[in-house]
Amino acid sequence: MKPALLAPILLTAGLGLGGGTAYGVHTLLPPAAGAPAKPKAETTSFTPTGKILAPLVLTDGRLSGYVSFEVQLETGETDVEFVTARMPMLLNAINMRTFRTPMAAGPDGMLPDLEQFRRVVMVAANEAFGPRMVRRAVITQATPA
Predict the structure, then answer these.
(1) Is 96 helix (H, G, I), strand (E, B) or coil?
(2) Which of 8, 84, 94, 140 to pair with 130, CA 20 to 30 A apart?
(3) Strand, helix or coil at 143?
(4) How far is Cα 113 from Cα 54, in angstroms, rounded to an integer?
(5) SS3 state of residue 62
(6) What are phi and psi of 42, to 5 degrees?
(7) Rg for the chain (alpha carbons), in Å?
(8) How far apart are CA 90 and CA 124, in angstroms?
(9) What distance in Å separates the CA atoms of residue 64 and residue 103, rounded to the nearest whole number?
(10) What predicted TM-score, i.e. pTM, was given to this entire model?
(11) What is the DSSP secondary structure assignment for residue 102, as one 8-state letter?
(12) Stretch 124-137: mean pLDDT, rounded?
């Protein structure tokens, strides 16, 4: 045969045999086990802490003023009662940290550093409720006191 005709004939035969083999393997062998099903995400709930009065401390340790925060803690739906019952432990842990943590921002030191306060709340929540009980703390309001 001519080499110009031989290449398309071999290509067509190869595709036919390869496709037939793939179809046979697909029908005879059981399907491969796929990835395990993802567990359902647990529903979360936000638990209010009420008003938290915190001192605004400058970096040199001087008291600049006070600020009132309202915080919501994101927890699992099953943990809401536990978190609510231990809320006084959280407030105590926050109070023990805020007077040592410089949270005053701005030129006159009268603005609260929200990110710093959020860190204080998360560390206090880990102490009061245990690690990974509170997923995040959301500051809903901050007003001068």
Answers:
(1) helix
(2) 140
(3) strand
(4) 12
(5) coil
(6) -70, 140
(7) 31
(8) 6
(9) 9
(10) 0.70
(11) B
(12) 93
How many residues are listed for the chain in this entry?
A: 145
Rounded Cα distance, 131 and 59, in Å: 29
Tokens 């036919």: give the residue: 16
Nearest to 130 by CA among 89, 88, 72: 89
Q: Please report the pLDDT score of residue 107 as a whole number.
A: 84
State which amino acid sits at residue 35: A
Q: What is the mean pLDDT of residues 64-82?
A: 93
Q: How far is CA 69 from the centre of its chain?
A: 22
Is the predicted pLDDT of residue 34 greater than 70, yes or no? no
114-129 and 87-98 helices, crossing angle to 10°: 130
Q: Give the up-direction half-sphere exposure of residue 68: CA atoms within 13 A in the CB hemisphere.
A: 5
Token pair listed for 71: 């915080």
Provide the token pair at 54.
Answer: 């915190």
- 18 band by pLDDT with thresholds 50, 70 and 90: confident
Residue linked to tokens 């309001």? 141
